[in-house]
Amino acid sequence: MKPFFTNSIAAFLGFTFWGAGMSKLYAGYQFIGWIGPRWLVERLAEFNLGLYAQFIAISQIVIGFMLLTTRFKLIGSIMLVPMLVNILMVTISQNWTGTPYVLAVLLLMNACLLWQYRDYFKPLVDETFAQVPQRTKSIRSLAGHAVWTAGLCLNLLSIAVSFSHLYSAFALAGIGVTLGILAFRVDRYSLPSKSNPPSQT
């Protein structure tokens, strides 16, 4: 699978769960997102599980942000597996019509994403596996990581801001996602000697 399609799958899954988590925590659930339920925190709070529901929502935001920005799509796709399976089991047990099929498709998409990194999983099933995956090393810098982390923090901060000024919260979330995506560009500027080796003359 070509990088464009891999990144497209990651971005779609990321947008799906990033939006799902943000909409659960935003004031009045006023955030973009097509998968729910948005009222999860409020409903589970009736059973003293409000903190657990908030944990689920924050996990969705973090995992979704990893995939949406495609910087940590392998870690994000691994973390997404137990979340998808658990949500799928809940929807089946609750007899939600149609939702299990949607989640099954999302799980299949995530499996396709993980398949692109299957060589990394060989040591998990064969401890004698000694080969190193032959992949082009990606350039990552501390500055890029810092910019990406700042973007994630702005998204989380926007949740609190949404209760006082919704449009400012949207702006913070947008800036946060932009920073997460631009972290790759920061890498290139931070490590010019590695990304642009001197030519032989």
UniProtKB/TrEMBL annotation:
Superkingdom to which the source organism belongs: Bacteria
Keywords: Membrane, Transmembrane, Transmembrane helix
Transmembrane segments: 51-68, 75-92, 98-117, 138-160, 166-184
Protein name per Swiss-Prot or TrEMBL: DoxX family protein
Originating organism: Algoriphagus aquatilis
